[in-house]
Write the structure tokens for this entry.
Amino acid sequence: MKKCLIVGGGFAGLAAAVYLSKQNFLVELIEASPKLGGKAYSFFDSKRNSILDNGQHILMGCYKETLNFLNIINSENNLTFQKSLKVSYIDRKGISHQLKAAKYFYPINLLIAILKYSAVSIKERISIIKFCAKLIFINPTKMRDESVSEWLKSEGQNENVIKSFWEIIAVGALNCSSDDASSKIFAKILKQMFFTGNFSSTIIIPSTDLSKMYCENALKYITDFGGNILTSESANEIVIKSNKVVSVKTNKREIDDFDFILFAVPSHAIPKIKGLPESIIDIANKIKYSSILTFHIWVKDFKMKNPFIGLINSQVHWVFDHGEYITIVISHADSIINYDETTLFNIVKSELKKYINLTDANIIDYKKIKEKRATFVPSTEILLKRPSSNTEIANLFLAGDWINTGLPSTIEGAVVSAKIATDSIIQTIKS
């Protein structure tokens, strides 16, 4: 039985461990932090006696590899699925708008959803439909190297359409400004979302906390196959001989009992590991990140009409209803992430009062969560530098959303990277 050592216990590391276990590999996984989940985890807040997620994470129907992974570990029942696309938005005047797929056959239902999207004029809705019709025949790999905003403007999408429709999708999916993101990767995810079946455009929300949603089941699956998972153990150095990694020095021991090693860690963790090839470190150092700011706000005498809403032309992008508390998400928060807590919360309260009429009287308490390196910036420059899973070292492989998957920095990107890495490892054995 071949053995693989996996470094990193986020989505990429856990998915890789599950895939390899299923292929009869003996897996050992080490994670530097005291918990599993990477950038998608939950924790116990003793002050409020609540289990909270470190941020609001959603999936989409087009996340085929993620849903396959969750199905393998029996976690699909921890998700809430939409039957068809339905997203509610509110503009600065407090007026609600819905992007709701009709009960007609796909893709007619999506066409009608756009035609009824009242945040833009009839003329602007038609321009969106024309753009989507053209998108069907576009090959993203053959597009020009330009930003999302440049591409949208060149295709006749005016400022109001961009702000009221495309920007919401772009910031949510790419977590960066449309002026910085590559049009190629945006075109690719748009095609996956809207042109690969009705289910692909639907939104899927965890129905429980993230650790229970996937970490616990992944842990059980791996250990049931004889694998071993250890937390609070970091890889500090690797030793390479004859173009193979022969040992790994951690903060607790030295490991040399493995055939393959897979680093499923974020790019900013790579330069901290001694012994890795300079070529890998050089690439990792060039990856730039964008932040996400989350506030969990406990409320009283307040109820949202929808499970989640998007705010049009606001610094606050999404609001999610969790009953006793709401969660607000500010994507691409780099311009404000370093503000003091009082200033940040005042910004949030001001926006929520305008959009959903939430006042100080409704607020009981709040918790702020910063993720300064939440996702990498999918600019054309960075996309060209993303490394492949295979490295110049024969038994050393990489995984993580920053690896060249062709996808942005999403849960799906992380899980796809795990599939690519495990396929590469298996192919190495066969060849």
